[in-house]
Amino acid sequence: MPQILVKLIDLCQRDDAGMGQVAKLIAHDAGMTAKILGIANSSAYSHGSLQLGLAQSLNTLGIEMIKTLVINESVFQTFSSFSRLNRADLRGFWLHALKTAVIARELAKRMSYPRSEEAYLAGLLHDVGRLALLGAAPHEYASNFMAEDDEHLCSIETGSLGISHTEAGAWLIEQWNLDSFLADSVLYHHEPISRLQAAHPLIRLVCLAHLLGCYKSDSPALEGAAALCAIDETDIQAILGSVNDYTKTAATYFGIDLTDADQASPSAEYVPQEPAANRVEERLADEVRNMAMISASVQSFSGIRSAQELLESVTRSARVLFNFEDMVVFLQDANAQALVGFPIGDRQQRLSGFSIPLAAGGILADSVSSRRITFAKRGDSALGLVEEQLLRAMGTECLAYIPLSTGQSGLGVLVGGLSSAQFDELWGQERFLKSFATQAAASLESSTAARNEMEKHIARVNEAHREASRKIVHEVNNPLSIIKNYLGVLDDKLANQEPVTEELSILNEEIDRVSRIVGGFADPQSPPREETTEVNAVLKDVVRLFSISRFLPASVKIVVKTTDQPDVMPGSADPLKQILLNLIKNAVEALPRGGVIGVRNNGRVQREGRAYIELRISDNGAGMPADVLANLFSPVHSSKGGENRGLGLSIVHGLVKKINGLISCRSGESGTTFEILLPAHEAAGKYGSEPKQVSKHEVS
After folding, report:
1. What is the DSSP annotation of 369-405?
2. How far is residue 406 from each of residues 45, 310, 434, 451, 551, measured CA to CA in Å?
3. Helix, strand or coil, per DSSP, at residue 601
């Protein structure tokens, strides 16, 4: 392998490879330099008359494109002339090598092996030792060259030549001084599975790729190798289902004729027909020179989420692959009634206003409807106004309509402009055009679906953030309202020179509570502190806030009933305080003409084998409407006004659930009652049959 290309492979597989380093190496290889300059200055990448230099060309193509170009060119330069040195039939060899390379790359992706280019190269060269032995001892090895590739062949090779093809291949690759386990993957691809348990992933995946390339489903080694790579039968069938098409495409890019390769006789001599071979080589010369990276470009479509970038990449790749002079894109509208020009390239304004009704007919509409690739030439009698417009706008002699469709879904059409000479070259390549269009359409459909899902996810996240913000505002407003009211009370007492110690204490408590509320929303996963709360104390504290502040109208009276003995629940007092404040505020708002609010602690009760403390908050208002009861604890639009109204009961439900309690509600014409079951602290006294004494006092 040329040393410049060896170094380039190593450099391109490094994450920190800079374009300056790559340019310096490529400049020493005339063939590679010419190829890169030719691609970068082709009509697909260059939109002006300025000729790009090497450094600019590398930046234009990008490091991913350079990687594939380097690997393909390395193999092409090294082995393109080998078949002329021997009369052996190499088609079967290349068929297996290409299959193994494609499979290895797919296995690398499924195993999350980060260097898929390395895996592809390892699969491509895993049997390179057979070429080495054929070149070194053509007469002695000719009879074994096309023999079945297994461990028995290695024994025969060692007995007759003193070295196996795995050893020869590994030795050859080691001479290239690659910083990789590639040589090891070649050396051990026939190794018993039991010895590969702790092997490097590249060694394991090349072993499995080789077996799948042969694909003998009854091979005992196949199941073990698949298990070693964590690949199941579904993955195997998926890989094998697409390997033949990818192999044929790769063979085309390399200029290798695989016709009847799987039927080649093991010892037959293959004498190519020189004129036909020359025609194939001539036909593919420009394609190999300018399009070695197209396979990687097609695969890279799936990584692009922007429709603009994806379609620009698709049209650029199509221009390189099929030598189009120009390209435009039409996409079907939402109702699939018309084709609408997609604004890319130099005609964005003109294309964005170009709409073609599918029902109007014509060559373009018929091509999309029938999903058939169609050609149109200037001067044809069948040309319609649309074709004439496109020919004039694109300044070309011919048009190629390439429908974009997946399954039963039509997405649009690529329109390529080309000269008459290019038309003659492209004629007969419908299969390749269709394959490209199918992959492009699948990527476009996937990109659209992924983009739609991402937009939905962002909308859900934004809505969750808005909901959380509304809840923060709602809950912070409670202590802020208390603070505001107590500042008024404080002002009155200071004016009358009355003591304000209690009010200042309440203000400090509420300011601290604001901080804890905001902190709880900011870090909902923080572990709760180990503490307990005496329920009666919280009840009295909340009622006291209403009694001496300006929350409670004169027409509303609060009747409080508590037990004589302490009732203790686990956890902080803050959630219980928030629950009671929300429920009592709702009760006050339910009594616009006045009434009575009941706040009652019924003490410890037993429900389903667990001990709870039962609280009841009631009012004698008009009750709740049926639609409110149907969505009682969900955020609803409230008629009470205010941006954050309608959240109180949703927050209450969340707080009760957070402290492992239960809440229920009854509502009718005689009023509304909320029953809350708070978990009782386990260290408290056992629940007994004797009811506790309940004390009663009123606040108005």
Report:
1. HHT--EEEETT-TT--HHHHHHHHHHT-SEEEEEEEE
2. 28, 16, 11, 18, 65
3. strand
Ramachandran class of 215: left when φ > 0, alpha when ψ lies in -120 to 50, beta otherwise: left
Kindly report the number of other CB atoms within 10 A of residue 475's CB atom: 24
What single string gives the DSSP state of each residue in 45-85?
A: T--SSPPP-HHHHHHHH-HHHHHHHHHHHHHHHHHTTGGGT
- Residue-wise pLDDT for 449-458, tens only, equals 655 666 676 6
Cα(251)–Cα(35) distance, integer angstroms: 19
The pLDDT tens digits for 136-186 are 887 788 778 777 777 788 888 888 888 999 999 998 888 777 667 888 999
Query: What is the H or E stretch that residue 111 is in?
Result: none
Q: How far apart are CA 417 and CA 256, in angstroms?
A: 29
The distance from CA 276 to its chain's CA centroid, rounded to whole angstroms, is 46
Q: Where are the alpha helices (DSSP H) in 496-569?
A: 501-522, 535-548
Tokens 């659930």 -> residue: 657
Protein fold of 84-289: Hypothetical protein af1432 (1.10.3210)
How much of the chain, in percent, has pLDDT values that exceed 70? 68
Residue 249 or 269, more confident: 249
The model's pTM: 0.39
Element (H, E) at 556: strand 556-563
Q: Could you give the CA distance from residue 473 to residue 69 in angstroms, rounded to a whole number?
A: 58
User: Which amino acid is it at 594?
Assistant: G
Q: Where are the domains of the chain?
A: 1-79, 84-289, 316-454, 530-699
Q: What are phi and psi of 113, to 5 degrees?
A: -80, 120
CB-CB contact of 509 with 549 (8 Å): no
Angle at 242 between CA 240 and CA 244, to 5 degrees: 85
Say if residues 399 and 417 touch (Cβ distance below 8 Å): yes
Q: Do domains 84-289 and 316-454 have the same CATH topology?
A: no
Q: Measure the CA angle with vertex 46, ends 45 and 51; round to 5°.
A: 130
User: Which residue type is seen at 70?
Assistant: V
Mention the CATH class of domain 316-454: alpha beta
Closest CA to 178 of 122, 133, 111, 105: 122
Annotation: CATH topology of 530-699: Heat Shock Protein 90 (3.30.565)
Strands (E), 566-609: 568-570, 595-607
**Amino acid code (one letter) for 14:** R
pLDDT tens-digit map of 625-669: 888 787 787 765 454 444 434 456 888 888 899 889 999 999 988
Structure tokens at 211: 């077996």
Q: What is the spatial distance between Cα 611 and Cα 170, in angstroms, rounded to a whole number?
A: 74
